[in-house]
Amino acid sequence: MTLLIQEAQDEREDVQKKTFSKWINSQLAKKKLEPVTDLFFDLRDGSKLLALLEVLTEKPCKKEKGKMRVHHLNNVNNALQILRDYRIKLVNINNNDIVDGNPKLTLGLVWSIILHWQVQDVLKGIMKEAKQTNLEKTLLAWCRQMTQGYEGVDIRNFTTSWTDGLAFNALIHKFEPELFDYDTQLHKPPAQRLEYAFKLAHKYLNIDRLLDPEDVNTTYPDKKSIMTYVMCLFQVLPHDTVDMQFADPSYAPPLPRRQAEAARPARPSSFLSSGSGVDINTYSTILEEVLGWLADAGARLEAPDGDSDSLAHVKSRFKAHEAYMVELTERKADIFEVLDEGKRLLTEKVTAEEEAEIREQMRLLTLRWEELRQRAIETQTQLQSRLAQVQLSAMDALRSWLTGMENRISLTAPLGPDLSTLPAQAAEHAALAAEVGRWKPHVTELFDVLVVEEDGDDSEFANLEDHLSVLSERWNFTVSWSEQREQHIAQLQRHWPQLHEQLAQLKDWVDGQEARLKAMEAEPTTEQQALQQQGSQLQVGEQSRLVEIAPRTRCFNIEVLARISV
User: What confidence score (pLDDT) does residue 194 get?
Assistant: First the structure.
């Protein structure tokens, strides 16, 4: 199992290597420089790395032309210093790693370069305006915002959300709708959609083909490779504003005005017709209705949510509270409208008693609203923390279960060796498959959304994604193994009656042949012609019978096959 996971990681590393090489070559081509052919080897002497930085910085970079290791180390060190001058973080990367051709650290170095020069400068202003420091979240928000309303597109990450090709087509169609009919892509297979999107982007947007369909249309594609390509799209497509609310996969944008009015909970009736300039009696009525809504909203906030700590339950509570927060935002205008109306009434001629009543009502409304808002924020923080913890617990539980399941798989004997053992093996696998089936909804819930606590940093988010990636690979292997074994058992079960009959025939034939041999041994003959005739009869009978029966019985009775061989 560890070997299979390593193979999947190696596959993603190969895709990343290819994508990053294409990106570097697209930059070097701007100055007609020689491309890289083997990323890990070509960057070892530092010359290609410095050439790349000359293109990106548009400044000359000092190179040492010697071919000794010391010259290579100096060149790479110069490149790393240039990156530090541009305030690019290089974690645990030194010149020896690059000169030695360390795959992981070489890819990490190139990824840091791509992040900085591909969109960092473009995104800097947007991220500052949105008070956001996470580039990945900002890019995800833009993708989700731009593809809202496109059938079949639900971008939740930079891996599995892109495998069917629809997300790439939707992004291009959003800004270039005259190029093609999006609906026609819905009926095409994923590989064709991906190929079509990459061709369009290359032809009309001048984006190099950094990816091939097979790089994306896989169980768990490489995130950094897809992000690199999406960053190229972001750079050339309009991106004036990014609504960071879209970074949350559960966020639902406001409905169009007429739909929103139909779907919104009923507002206090007096607000629909009162307008401005109400008298003090009408104002009191409106205020009572708003205070009634605040009391109802407070009661809903205090409603018990049950003791279940299942991921599905906590996630449902989290999403329900998000809808609650949206409702609060919509009602905020009502609250301030009432307060403004109270201020207007105070400017008119009112008695001292009426003025005191209005001020007390405004004070009470402000107090109740602020209390509700603070409690809602605290509840949101608690739910987010609770969801993050439950999510981690669910990951630990899945990790533990997968380890046990992988051990069971490794100890599972091959089917057979005879028909008598197959029913027990089928029953054993049915129990295993049922257990896998019981875990499927939990795994789906776990992979559906990734939540970290508000005070969590970007590295924590990245680590969680990495852990989910590994768990996804292990889960996919377990499901695949279970399905394949189930299919094999079903195929054998369909042929059981025939195999039983053939095996019985084969046993009868072996018994007969053995009896003939014993009879020959009891009445030996020295006549050459008689011996040849007996041997010929045995050979013909044996060959015809084996051709008819033995291949179909395969290895289901070792004893019989051994007797045949003798």
Answer: 95
